[in-house]
Structure formats: C-alpha cells, structure tokens
Amino acid sequence: MLERDIEKALIRKVKSLGGMCEKYTSPSRRSVPDRLVSMPGGDIIFVEVKRPGGKVTEAQKRDHLKRRALGFKVIVVDSYEDVEIFPEEG
Prior knowledge:
Distance between the termini: 22 Å
Number of strands: 4
Helix content: 25-40%
Number of domains: 1
CATH architecture: 3-Layer(aba) Sandwich
CATH topology: Trna Endonuclease, Chain: A, domain 1
Largest sheet: 4 strands, mixed
C-alpha cells in the first residue's frame, strides 16, 4: 500500500462527511502537513499522510507542535483504519 492510496481514501472519506480535503503546500516553508481539511461546523484539521510504517520527520513534529499550540488539530494518517475513524482518531 502506498501513501497516495491512503491519501485517496482520506479524500473520499472527507467528501462523504461533507468536508473539503485540499492539498496544502507552502512556498516559503517545508515540512507542512499534506492536507488541509475543512469540515462542516467550521473545524479545520491539518493531516499528515504517511505510508504504513512511515515516520514523521523531526521538522514535521516541530511544525505539528506549533500548530497544536495555536489550537489546531493535527492528525497523522498512515493506514486505512486511520481513515475509517477520521476525524475522531486525532
């Protein structure tokens, strides 16, 4: 199973819940989460997608900590099981 397969499953899941799952990139910063998820009710969730067993880098961990300190939810998804319980798994 590849990262892109998990990412496609995440996109389908978010759409089925009525949300938007946009690719997130920053021209000025590296190590930002892969997806910006906007859910009904105004919830914003940053999602890092990894292949099964894939590890978050130290730079990604720092980025996630900063976002969480600002009050945002940041989730790492690395399996179909994580997608099934999204967004509760964070």
